[in-house]
C-alpha cells in the first residue's frame, strides 16, 4: 500500500512530468513553426533576389531595344550621319560599351569606329540569325577577351541588317549579380550555353563545373537568359537561424509548463483518479465480521472500501478516504458503496437481525441527504438484512440532524457511534443521539494487559456503556488475552484480526460456512442480546 506522502509525491511528479512534456511539445512545436516560417522566408528572399536580377537585366535590354527602333529604319545613310545617332544610344545606355550598325552582314558603323567594314558573322558567328539574339562571349573588337553581352536586333525587311548592342557585362553584373548574404552567396548569368559568375572575368561553359550546383535557377520570360543563384539551402539557413529563437521558445516552454502544472492541480491530484475509479468500478467492497462475545456467532459485518489500481496497485483507505472528505467526494463515495452493497446483498444471510455496517461522513448527515440516499439506493431493493450507519464521536450534529436520526429509526436503520472514547462527546450528546451501538476505538484494545492510562480509561468507558444500557463493540481485537478481558468485562461484541481480516464480499459465505452460521436471537428490536 502507498502512504499519503508517497501518493502525494507520485502525483506531483505526474503533474510535473506532464507539464514538462506539454511544455516541451509546445516548445518543439514553436521551433518547428519558426523553422517553417524561416524556410519559407529564406526561399522567398532567394527567389526575389534572382527575380530582381532578371528584372534589372530585362530593363536594360528592353531599353536598348526601344531606343533602337528608329535606327532599324535607316537605309543607305552613311556613317557620318549614323555615328552621332549610335553615340546618342550609347549615352542613354550607361552600361553599353559599343553600338554597331550592320548593313547586309557588314559592320558599317559604330559609335567608336566610323567605318569598321568588317563581316558581322566572321566577328560574331553566333549572330547569324534572322531574329533577335542574345550572346554572352569574350569581346572581339574592343578590350579583347573581356566578357561582353551582345544583343542583335535585325530589321524585319533585311535580316542581315540591324543594330548590335555590346554591353559591358562585367560592370553590369557587379550590381545585377551582387550577393545578398547570408541568403545569396553568388549569382551567375546564363546565355546560350555560356555562363558568367559574379566578379569573374572569364566566361565558362554552361553549366559551369565549379563543384557547386546552384540553389535555384530562374529564366527570363522576355529574353533568352537565366539567372543561377548559389547559396546554402533554405533548410541549412533556417537551421542556422533557429538558435536566435531559443530565448523566446524557452520563455514559452516555461510559461506553458507553469500553466499546465497549475491547471493540472485539480485534475492530477488523487481526487481525479478516485472519481475515475468509481466510474470504472475499481473500488472493491470488503467486509470484516463482528462476533458476539458470549456465543462466538457472527451477527454482522462492517463494510469497508479497498482501492486496487491496475497500474499503481493498492492504495490505503487512510489515503483516499481523507482526500475524498477534503475534496467533496465522500458523499459520492458513500453512494457508490450503497449501490455496490445493494447489488451484492445476496452474499450475506437473509436475516433481518444480520446487520451491514457502513461508515457515514458528517456532511452526509449535515446536508440532509443521508435518509434520501438510503431510501433510493438501499431500501428500494427491499433487502432482508439490516443496515447500520456509523458516525464518529467527533461528528457534531445540529438540531435538524437529530430529526434525521429519528427518521432513520423509523426506517429500521441502526446507528453506531464509532471511535467511542476518542472524541468530545458528552453524556447529553449520547442521550440526544441515542445510538444502538458504541464502537470502542482500536487504540483501547492495545492497552489491555498494560499499565497505560488508557487501560483505566477503557474500564471507565465500558462501565459508562453498561450504565447507559448501550451495546459495546470493541474494534482491533488481535489476541485471546484481549478477547478474554473484554468478555469478562461484559463487552457485547468483538471485531478484529483475531477472528478475521477484512475480506472481499465474495469470500464471506465460505468464511461463514466454515465458522458456523449466525444464530441471532429473535424477538428484539436491537442487536443480538448477550
UniProtKB/TrEMBL annotation:
The chain crosses the membrane at residues 245-263. Pfam families: CSS-motif, EAL. One of its GO terms (cellular component) is plasma membrane. SUPFAM superfamilies: EAL domain-like. SMART domains: EAL. PROSITE patterns: EAL. It is found in: Cell membrane. Its EC number is 3.1.4.52. CDD domains: EAL. It is a multi-pass membrane protein. One of its GO terms (molecular function) is cyclic-guanylate-specific phosphodiesterase activity. Residues 267-516 form the EAL domain. Coiled coil: none annotated. Keywords: c-di-GMP, Cell membrane, Hydrolase, Membrane, Transmembrane, Transmembrane helix. It is an enzyme of class 3 (hydrolase). It catalyses: 3',3'-c-di-GMP + H2O = 5'-phosphoguanylyl(3'->5')guanosine + H(+). This is cyclic-guanylate-specific phosphodiesterase. It comes from Edwardsiella hoshinae.
Amino acid at each position: 500500500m502507498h502512504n499519503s506522502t508517497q501518493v502525494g509525491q507520485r502525483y506531483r511528479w505526474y503533474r510535473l512530468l506532464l507539464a514538462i512534456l506539454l511544455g516541451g511539445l509546445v516548445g518543439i512545436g514553436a521551433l518547428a513553426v519558426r523553422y517553417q516560417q524561416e524556410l519559407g522566408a529564406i526561399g522567398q528572399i532567394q527567389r526575389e533576389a534572382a527575380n530582381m536580377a532578371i528584372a534589372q537585366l530585362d530593363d536594360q535590354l528592353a531599353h536598348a531595344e526601344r531606343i533602337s527602333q528608329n535606327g532599324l529604319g535607316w537605309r543607305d545613310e552613311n556613317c557620318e550621319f549614323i555615328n552621332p545617332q549610335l553615340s546618342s544610344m550609347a549615352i542613354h545606355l550607361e552600361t553599353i560599351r559599343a553600338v554597331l550598325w550592320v548593313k547586309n552582314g557588314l559592320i558599317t558603323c559604330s559609335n567608336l569606329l566610323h567605318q569598321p567594314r568588317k563581316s558581322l558573322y566572321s566577328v560574331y558567328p553566333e549572330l547569324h540569325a534572322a531574329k533577335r539574339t542574345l550572346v554572352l562571349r569574350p569581346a572581339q573588337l574592343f578590350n579583347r577577351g573581356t566578357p561582353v553581352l551582345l544583343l542583335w536586333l535585325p530589321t524585319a525587311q533585311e535580316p542581315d541588317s540591324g543594330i548590335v548592342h555590346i554591353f559591358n557585362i562585367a560592370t553590369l553584373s557587379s550590381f545585377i549579380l551582387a550577393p545578398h548574404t547570408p541568403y545569396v552567396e553568388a549569382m551567375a548569368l546564363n546565355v546560350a550555353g555560356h555562363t558568367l559568375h559574379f566578379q569573374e572575368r572569364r566566361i565558362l561553359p554552361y553549366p559551369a563545373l565549379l563543384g557547386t550546383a546552384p540553389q535555384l535557377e530562374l529564366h527570363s520570360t522576355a529574353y533568352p537568359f537565366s539567372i543561377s543563384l548559389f547559396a546554402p539551402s533554405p533548410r541549412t539557413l533556417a537551421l542556422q537561424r533557429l538558435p536566435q529563437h531559443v530565448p523566446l521558445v524557452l520563455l514559452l516552454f516555461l510559461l506553458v509548463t507553469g500553466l499546465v502544472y497549475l491547471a493540472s492541480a485539480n485534475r492530477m491530484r488523487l481526487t481525479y483518479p478516485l472519481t475515475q475509479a468509481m466510474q470504472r468500478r475499481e473500488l472493491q467492497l470488503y467486509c470484516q465480521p463482528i462476533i458476539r462475545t458470549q456465543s462466538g456467532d457472527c451477527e454482522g459485518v462492517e463494510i469497508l472500501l479497498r482501492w486496487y489500481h491496475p497500474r499503481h496497485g493498492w492504495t490505503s483507505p487512510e489515503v483516499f478516504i481523507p482526500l475524498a472528505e477534503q475534496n467533496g467526494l465522500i458523499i459520492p463515495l458513500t453512494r457508490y458503496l450503497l449501490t455496490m452493497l445493494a447489488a451484492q446483498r445476496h452474499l450475506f444471510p437473509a436475516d433481518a437481525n444480520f446487520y451491514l455496517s457502513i461508515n457515514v461522513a458528517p456532511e452526509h448527515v449535515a446536508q440532509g441527504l443521508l435518509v434520501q440516499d438510503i431510501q433510493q439506493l438501499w431500501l428500494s431493493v427491499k433487502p432482508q438484512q439490516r443496515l447500520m450507519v456509523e458516525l464518529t464521536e467527533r461528528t457534531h450534529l445540529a438540531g435538524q440532524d437529530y430529526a434525521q436520526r429519528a427518521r432513520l429509526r423509523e426506517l429500521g436503520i441502526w446507528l453506531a457511534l464509532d471511535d467511542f472514547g476518542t472524541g468530545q462527546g458528552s453524556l447529553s450528546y449520547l442521550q440526544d443521539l441515542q445510538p444502538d451501538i458504541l464502537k470502542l476505538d482500536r487504540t483501547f484494545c492495545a492497552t489491555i494487559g498494560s499499565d497505560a492510562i488508557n487501560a483505566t480509561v477503557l474500564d471507565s468507558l465500558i462501565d459508562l456503556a453498561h450504565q447507559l444500557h448501550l451495546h459495546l463493540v470493541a474494534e482491533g481485537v488481535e489476541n485471546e488475552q484481549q478477547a478474554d478481558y473484554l468478555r469478562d468485562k461484559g463487552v457485547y461484541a468483538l471485531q478484529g484480526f483475531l477472528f478475521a481480516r477484512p475480506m472481499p464480499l465474495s469470500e464471506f459465505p465460505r468464511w461463514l460456512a466454515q465458522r458456523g452460521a449466525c444464530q441471532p436471537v429473535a424477538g428484539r428490536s436491537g442487536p443480538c442480546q448477550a
